[in-house]
């Protein structure tokens, strides 16, 4: 950082003095520098990047961040950072930071085909409102959508959810977290009836074993990986296993590396379950007391569209599998069917993929019976150059580690499990293994889903910014949850829309088929990150629609937009994040945003001033709505009821939803600010503390309902470094479901008290056999889920696997980290990691430029055979941060049919020299 | 005489100068264009490298024979490719006349010519005298030192190398050496570098001394001994009239075939032509006694 | 028209002989003077050249470059390697650059050598200054990376190791070792350079994210130490004692040079009267 002129002169004088009296100049300079630093204001914050949630300290001077440091008091990272975190201060100061609203215009008027032109905020919001009303009047609440983020601040996500669901009565709000951990969420809900992990990071220091499943922790969760390695260095019996489809950085630190074929994790987990039963290692007392067994349909499709109307010609063969599929031989064996016969099945349960029912232990046992060592080893061995015997030995070793009753074990997983056409299944299977062994909810024994984003938990999940969710684990399609929400929000009954909205991939599809024509994107770059991008880029630019993107930098999504709103970045606003171990961390506004950039929250509230209750709380058409108490296809007019509650038709949504008397009671300025500004409040021109009011309003949902957050001010105390919810009586909860640590456990030592889906019919592996429902409060479910082949596998034409993912140097689509020159220089371009022999076979060498082509498009990139990832034969990897390579043009937009999370890990490609 | 001079169109008088500049700059441009603008022919890079060594169309290697000689003298073996390249270049200049290189190719010539003109027009003083043959001593030293210190001695200090490298590959501080040369030639010794010191010039003086086929021919019958040619010649000693009269042509290897003398001669006594095998054959009327300046002190 | 000018004492030269050579004595005198000038000039000249060749030992040469003495002799300074490099890595040193004038070098912090498998710079070299015998670019030794552990993020505990991940010879040229941090429950992942594998390509130096690179590439001889031949690390198999290369043999030479009669080493000291 530069010295100010005054201090520069001062140090110049010091240097002159130093020479005169013979003091080393460097020491004098450091004294001068220390003097400069006296004027710095240090305050706590959170790292902007991954889900680990490292604490950082931020130094500011004259409205600029002058330095950051890892927070030595933060229990997560104790002063450390990864190299992205090291650059937290620099991401705000990229050269092309957006500082004023930009709209596509021709001759001074909005024109979809026009050029971006700077406009005032008023012009921007006026056009945005005109376009909103056009779409809303024409198509109703389903014609508009919001793509949000797991990087949204808690308050931003909450405000947008309230505006969309209570105001616009639309459930078409979905975060990019959908493509990050929705599978984990779906499995949490199905298995435990409540979201988020029972354990926490401290499990690492208590365990004897860490198994990483589809989680390149060494790169994706860098500082957490240091704790794993430290445990191994300090604990002689510690073992680390890396289960992966390619050799990666995590392999370097592992004792056992198991390279498997894509999607065979489902088979491998069934092998483990079978082995646990065979070895008599089931923790019978635990299972009897705390578990039930479940099964579900298997004809659930792949989350693609059932029609080929929009498919490219080359996509049609794969798309057809959404309607009907012929089982592979391995799938048949895994389902206990005769492998010699051809089994063609219709995807009858594609829309009801989340159905499940109770089965018996014997059913479960029969289900996993085909998953013998021989079958699974043959099926799953991912490295053609490894011997089958060696691979079998590894599987047995893995089973030894899991089955050993004395061994504590943590399973970590990330995108390898979650971005998976059977992502929910495989998440459930890992719980099944842990539940069978009773290795859960106690220090050192933990199935732990690592999140990718800094507030995937804190905002996307806990606030409930999904198309089906409401705050505190509630969902829109349960009447009781809507009632609670309507009461909390003081809404007339039946204001909330009971029909689940469009998830992020469906929002893109809605844009393509024209059923949605107004979309607002915040804290997110969906036009780069959503799979099969060629479709959506075209839909956004060529269909009659209006896309607003709030962004700090000119990303691909901003380029696609019709209106760009410049945003304040993380430390330019008050806010909070929640990390993967349920730790909620809040910070103050440290520096003002540049130019006319404003917080996303300010934008949400300002926009809400332009819509009145009369426009939204009237009768609304919702195609396909069918719910008890609702007229088919319609939301009722609630204006009359609203008027009885004191609302007026001409009231704006801002007045009705945000500037409520309760919220206005939180005065600004507030002592907690300690002299820090609040540009959101300033530009709204109000005297209430918006972020605090919204936080407290939101926290009201969870308090007393297993999701207790501490009071807003507590998080700002100097001695607090985030707290793991539920925070009950001022105490955080390190391990949930365990009476020793969790005040919500009322019955016995262990209680899975989550309340969702705890009443089911009973049947066998093929389906329910009774209508009658059984309740099983306090229990978790052990699912049988069979092996399922990927929807698309390499064939004669597209002959190579492509997996996409992250790497340490860059964050997601690189919008921020690519603005840091040092990080850009360290990793300037995404390369295709592939096996040297595969390259040779195609007449290629490292550094050759190639075309990479899938059924969905082609891109140009350079191949690397000695890169950080060393794929086995037939497999390749590319990171998705690089917009100039744009790998997501290639990826298939198939999803897990339950979680609707896309599978970015399994696309068939071919490559050839440019 | 004066009227006669004016009858010749100005541009025609400049023809050789223009042609030389075109060749000099053209060569540099070929190198530069190939490097910076990707000039190519049939998809092959036109001329890559620089005057020390280069490759024509990605096929034929050319090399500076003097540099090659120095390297050989350091005791290092060289690849056949570069030896052939040096031989090729050497062959060309053996036929054309060694110092054709100096006035038609060498980029430093651009600088020293300007300095020479300035000297003639402004200063006209030499601070001290340097013998023309000093360059042979420098040449001998370059070769000897190459042997002694194991480094190609001249290549390590050559302002010629510095200049063309820096023109082709981007400017560094080499221009300072050129400024030095320029000032030296302008203010210290007329034609100080090219005419007295440059060992590369000395090397080329020896090359083709007896074999150069293109020479400046002298027609004694028309010469009136005005001395204009010597006044403009950067190597005036080669226009020794006695020898000219004897040989009917410029035989000295030090002549650079720059052709300054040809258009300046009011009597058109000088012209390019093929080397005469018989000294003095044809053009020299032996009986005619030339009036020399020193005959009339 | 007379063009005689004071500065041109003999504007119209007719004789090749200069008047100073007229007497025998003058000739000898001039010869001696000339020889003296030539010798001192030659010494100055060679001093300049040698100084220039040695002045900047920091220069990194293209792959396959011969040892300095040979490279400096053979390099014809033609720049064809520079033209051939597809990444614009190489530069011909201009005056006052960090390498001897006119020779190719690169600064990895600007652009490193990306180790092209077909080594186009070597192919382009006409003189063999870039050794034609280099076949695998991974065998080239342009320099050696070293880490300033005081300013290396990883050595201070942060998760960086960018140098390790970008290294084309990962685990052969840079390895990561783990060590407990002790201050907290975090391990340190420490990059370590292995001189056996390091090509000196400088990709690590280029990628290093600190303000001034904490990993740098320099010619190996500038940074690499050497333990005495008289000691072998017995625990390293490659250095295990084998007949004929043991310490005894190395010392043998020194001990064998038997001192002449009456000149036993140490006598001088022992026979000094003072204590």
UniProtKB/TrEMBL annotation, chain A:
Q: Would you tell me the protein name for this molecule?
A: Periplasmic nitrate reductase
Species per Swiss-Prot/TrEMBL record: Thiocapsa roseopersicina
Catalyses: 2 Fe(II)-[cytochrome] + nitrate + 2 H(+) = 2 Fe(III)-[cytochrome] + nitrite + H2O
Cofactor remark from the record: Binds 1 [4Fe-4S] cluster.
Q: Where does Mo-bis(molybdopterin guanine dinucleotide) bind?
A: 84, 151, 176, 180, 415, 419, 525, 550-551, 573, 600, 888, 905
Pfam families, per database record: Molybdop_Fe4S4 (PF04879), Molybdopterin (PF00384), Molydop_binding (PF01568), TAT_signal (PF10518)
Gene Ontology terms: biological process: cellular respiration; Mo-molybdopterin cofactor biosynthetic process; nitrate assimilation
Q: Which residues form the 4Fe-4S Mo/W bis-MGD-type domain?
A: 40-96
UniProt keyword terms in alphabetical order: 4Fe-4S, Electron transport, Iron, Iron-sulfur, Metal-binding, Molybdenum, Nitrate assimilation, Oxidoreductase, Periplasm, Signal, Transport
Physiological role: Catalytic subunit of the periplasmic nitrate reductase complex NapAB. Receives electrons from NapB and catalyzes the reduction of nitrate to nitrite.
UniProtKB/TrEMBL annotation, chain B:
Q: Kindly give the Pfam families that the UniProt entry links to this protein.
A: Fer4_10, Fer4_5
4Fe-4S ferredoxin-type domain residues: 214-244, 246-275
Q: Report which superkingdom the organism of origin falls in.
A: Bacteria
GO terms assigned for molecular function = 4 iron, 4 sulfur cluster binding; metal ion binding
Q: Which keywords label this protein?
A: 4Fe-4S, Electron transport, Iron, Iron-sulfur, Membrane, Metal-binding, Repeat, Transmembrane, Transmembrane helix, Transport
Q: Name one GO cellular component term.
A: plasma membrane
**Entry-linked InterPro entries:** 4Fe4S_Fe-S-bd, 4Fe4S_Fe_S_CS, Electron_Trans/Redox, NapH_MauN
Q: Membrane-spanning residues where?
A: 21-44, 82-101, 134-154, 166-189
Q: SUPFAM superfamilies recorded for this chain? A: 4Fe-4S ferredoxins
Name of this chain's protein: Periplasmic nitrate reductase subunit NapH
TrEMBL record, chain C:
4Fe-4S ferredoxin-type domain mapped to chain residues: 65-95, 102-135, 189-220
* Cross-referenced SUPFAM superfamilies: 4Fe-4S ferredoxins
State the organism of origin: Thiocapsa roseopersicina
Put simply, this protein is called: Ferredoxin-type protein NapG
Q: Name one GO molecular function term.
A: metal ion binding
Q: Which Pfam families match?
A: Fer4_7
- UniProt entry keywords in alphabetical sequence: 4Fe-4S, Electron transport, Iron, Iron-sulfur, Metal-binding, Repeat, Transport
* NCBIfam families named in the record: mauM_napG, PRK09476.1
> Could you list the residue ranges that cross the membrane?
none
**InterPro entries xref list:** 4Fe4S_Fe-S-bd (IPR017896), 4Fe4S_Fe_S_CS (IPR017900), MauM_NapG (IPR004494), PSI_iron-sulfur_center (IPR050157), TAT_signal (IPR006311)
Positions of the UniProt region annotated as Disordered: 238-275
The lineage's top-level taxon is Bacteria
């Amino acid at each position: 950082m530069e010295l100010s002129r005054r201090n520069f002169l001062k140090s110049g004088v010091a240097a002159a003095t130093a020479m005169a009296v013979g003091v080393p100049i460097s020491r004098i300079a450091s004294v001068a520098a220390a003097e400069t630093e006296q004027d710095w204001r240090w305050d706590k914050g959170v790292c902007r990047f991954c889900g680990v949630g490292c604490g950082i300290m931020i130094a500011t001077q004259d409205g600029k961040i002058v330095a950051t440091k890892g927070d030595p008091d933060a229990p997560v990272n104790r002063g450390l950072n990864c190299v992205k975190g090291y650059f937290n201060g620099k991401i705000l100061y990229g050269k092309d930071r957006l500082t004023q609203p930009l709209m596509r215009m021709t001759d001074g008027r909005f024109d979809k085909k026009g050029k971006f032109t700077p406009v005032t905020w008023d012009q921007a919001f006026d056009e945005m409102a005109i376009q909103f009303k056009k779409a809303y009047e024409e198509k109703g609440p389903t014609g508009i959508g919001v793509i949000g983020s797991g990087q949204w601040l808690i308050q931003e996500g909450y405000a947008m959810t309230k505006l969309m669901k209570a105001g616009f009565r639309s459930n078409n709000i979905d975060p990019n977290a959908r493509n990050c951990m929705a599978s984990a969420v779906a499995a949490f809900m199905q298995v435990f009836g409540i979201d988020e992990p029972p354990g926490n990071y401290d499990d690492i220091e208590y365990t004897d074993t860490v198994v990483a499943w589809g989680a390149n922790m060494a790169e994706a969760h860098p500082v957490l990986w240091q704790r794993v390695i430290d445990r191994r260095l300090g604990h002689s019996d510690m073992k680390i296993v890396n289960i992966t489809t390619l050799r990666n950085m995590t392999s370097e630190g592992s004792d056992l590396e198991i390279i498997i074929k894509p999607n065979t994790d489902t088979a491998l987990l069934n092998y483990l379950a079978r082995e646990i039963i065979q070895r008599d290692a089931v923790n019978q007392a635990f299972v009897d007391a705390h578990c039930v067994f479940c099964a579900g349909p298997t004809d659930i499709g792949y989350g693609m569209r059932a029609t080929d109307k929009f498919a490219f010609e080359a996509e049609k063969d794969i798309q057809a599998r959404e309607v009907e599929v012929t089982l592979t031989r391995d799938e048949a064996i895994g389902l206990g069917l005769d492998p010699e016969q051809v089994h063609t099945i219709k995807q009858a349960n594609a829309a009801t993929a989340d159905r499940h029912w109770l089965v018996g232990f014997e059913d479960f046992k029969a289900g996993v019976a085909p998953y013998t060592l021989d079958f699974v080893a043959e099926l799953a061995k991912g490295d053609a150059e490894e011997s089958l015997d060696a691979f079998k030995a590894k599987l047995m070793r893995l089973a030894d580690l899991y089955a050993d009753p004395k061994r504590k074990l943590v399973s970590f997983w990330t995108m390898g499990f979650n971005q998976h056409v059977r992502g929910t299944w495989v998440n459930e299977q890992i719980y099944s293994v842990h539940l069978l062994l009773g290795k859960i909810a106690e220090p050192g024994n933990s199935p732990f889903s690592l999140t990718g984003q800094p507030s995937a938990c804190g905002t996307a999940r806990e606030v409930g910014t999904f198309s089906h969710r409401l705050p505190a684990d509630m969902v829109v399609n349960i009447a009781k949850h809507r009632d609670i929400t309507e009461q909390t929000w003081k809404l007339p009954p039946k204001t909330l829309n009971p029909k689940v909205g469009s998830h992020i991939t469906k929002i893109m599809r809605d844009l393509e088929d024209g059923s949605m024509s107004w979309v607002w994107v915040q804290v997110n770059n969906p036009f780069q990150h959503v799979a099969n991008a060629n479709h959506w880029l075209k839909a956004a630019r060529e269909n009659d629609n209006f896309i607003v993107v709030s962004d700090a930098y000119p990303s691909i999504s901003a380029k696609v937009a019709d209106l760009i709103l410049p945003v304040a970045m993380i430390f330019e606003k008050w806010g909070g994040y929640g990390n993967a171990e349920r730790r909620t961390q809040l910070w103050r506004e440290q520096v003002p945003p540049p130019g006319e950039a404003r917080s996303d929250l300010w934008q949400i509230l300002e926009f809400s001033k332009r819509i009145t209750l009369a426009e939204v709380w009237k009768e609304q058409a919702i195609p396909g709505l069918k719910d008890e108490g609702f007229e088919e296809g319609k939301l009722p007019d609630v204006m009359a009821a609203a008027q009885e509650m004191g609302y007026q038709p001409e009231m704006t949504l801002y007045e009705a939803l945000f500037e409520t008397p309760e919220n206005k009671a939180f005065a600004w300025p507030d002592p907690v600010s300690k002299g820090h500004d609040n540009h959101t409040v300033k530009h709204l021109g109000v005297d209430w503390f918006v972020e605090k009011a919204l936080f407290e309003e939101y926290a009201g949902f969870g308090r007393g309902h297993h999701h207790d957050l501490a009071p807003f001010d507590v998080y700002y105390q100097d001695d607090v470094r985030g707290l793991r919810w539920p925070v009950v009586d001022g105490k955080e909860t390190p391990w949930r479901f365990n009476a020793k640590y969790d005040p919500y456990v009322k019955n016995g030592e262990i209680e899975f008290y989550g309340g969702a889906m705890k009443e089911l019919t009973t049947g066998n592996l093929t389906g329910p056999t009774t209508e009658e429902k059984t309740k099983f409060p306090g229990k978790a479910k052990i699912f049988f889920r069979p092996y399922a082949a990927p929807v698309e596998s390499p064939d004669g034409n597209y002959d190579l696997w492509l997996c996409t993912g992250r790497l340490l140097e860059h964050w997601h689509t690189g919008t921020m980290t690519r603005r840091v020159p040092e990080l850009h220089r360290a990793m300037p371009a995404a390369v295709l990691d592939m096996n040297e022999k595969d390259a040779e076979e195609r007449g290629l060498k490292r550094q050759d430029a190639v075309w990479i082509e899938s059924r969905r498009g082609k891109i140009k990139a350079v191949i690397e055979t000695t890169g950080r990832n060393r794929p086995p034969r037939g497999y390749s990897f590319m990171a998705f941060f690089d917009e100039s390579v744009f790998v997501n043009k290639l990826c298939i937009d198939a999803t897990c049919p339950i979680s609707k999370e896309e599978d970015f890990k399994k696309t068939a490609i071919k490559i050839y020299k440019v | 005489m004066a009227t006669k001079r004016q009858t010749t169109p100005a541009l025609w008088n400049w023809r050789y100068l223009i042609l030389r500049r075109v060749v000099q700059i053209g060569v540099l441009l070929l190198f530069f264009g190939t490097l910076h603008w990707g000039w190519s022919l049939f998809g092959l890079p036109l001329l890559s490298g620089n005057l020390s060594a280069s490759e024509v169309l990605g096929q034929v290697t050319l090399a500076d024979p003097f540099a090659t000689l120095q390297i050989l003298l350091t005791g290092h073996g060289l690849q056949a490719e570069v030896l052939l390249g040096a031989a090729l270049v050497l062959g060309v200049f053996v036929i054309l006349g060694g110092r054709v290189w100096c006035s038609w190719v060498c980029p430093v010539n651009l600088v020293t010519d300007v300095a020479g003109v300035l000297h003639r027009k402004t200063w006209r003083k030499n601070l001290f005298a340097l013998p023309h043959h000093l360059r042979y001593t420098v040449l001998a030293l370059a070769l000897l030192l190459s042997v002694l210190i194991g480094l190609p001695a001249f290549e390590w200090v050559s302002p010629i190398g510095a200049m063309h490298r820096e023109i082709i590959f981007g400017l560094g501080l080499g221009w300072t050496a050129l400024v030095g040369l320029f000032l030296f030639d302008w203010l210290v010794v007329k034609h100080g570098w090219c005419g007295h010191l440059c060992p590369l010039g000395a090397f080329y003086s020896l090359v083709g001394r007896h074999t150069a086929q293109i020479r400046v021919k002298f027609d004694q019958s028309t010469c009136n001994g005005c001395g204009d040619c010597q006044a403009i010649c950067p190597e005036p000693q080669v226009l020794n009239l006695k020898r000219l009269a004897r040989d009917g042509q410029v035989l000295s290897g030090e002549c650079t075939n720059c052709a300054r003398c040809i258009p300046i001669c009011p009597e058109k006594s000088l012209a390019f032509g093929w080397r005469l095998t018989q000294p003095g054959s044809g053009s020299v009327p032996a009986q005619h006694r030339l009036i020399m300046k020193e005959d009339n002190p | 028209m007379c063009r005689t000018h004071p500065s041109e004492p003999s504007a119209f030269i007719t004789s090749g002989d200069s008047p100073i050579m007229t007497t025998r004595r003058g000739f000898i005198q001039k010869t001696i003077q000339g020889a003296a000038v030539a010798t001192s000039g030659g010494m100055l000249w060679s001093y300049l050249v040698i100084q220039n060749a040695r002045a900047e030992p920091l220069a990194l040469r293209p792959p396959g470059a011969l040892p300095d003495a040979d490279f400096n002799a053979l390099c014809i300074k033609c720049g064809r390697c520079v033209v051939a490099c597809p990444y614009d890595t190489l530069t011909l040193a201009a005056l006052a650059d960090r390498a001897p004038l006119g020779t190719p070098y690169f600064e990895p912090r600007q652009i490193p050598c990306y180790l092209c498998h077909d080594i186009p710079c070597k192919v382009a070299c006409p003189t063999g200054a870039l050794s034609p015998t280099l076949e695998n670019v991974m065998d080239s030794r342009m320099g050696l990376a070293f880490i300033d552990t005081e300013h290396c993020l990883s050595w201070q505990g942060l998760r960086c190791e960018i140098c390790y991940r970008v290294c084309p010879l990962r685990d052969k040229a840079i390895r990561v070792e783990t060590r407990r941090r002790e201050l907290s429950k975090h391990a340190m992942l420490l990059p370590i350079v292995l001189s056996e594998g390091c090509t000196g390509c400088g990709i690590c130096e280029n990628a290093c994210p600190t303000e001034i690179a904490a990993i740098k590439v320099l010619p190996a001889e500038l940074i690499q130490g050497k333990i005495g031949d008289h000691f072998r690390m017995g625990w390293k198999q490659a250095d295990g004692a084998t007949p004929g290369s043991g310490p005894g043999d190395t010392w043998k030479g020194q001990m064998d040079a038997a001192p002449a009669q009456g000149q036993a080493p140490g006598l001088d000291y022992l026979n000094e009267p003072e204590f």
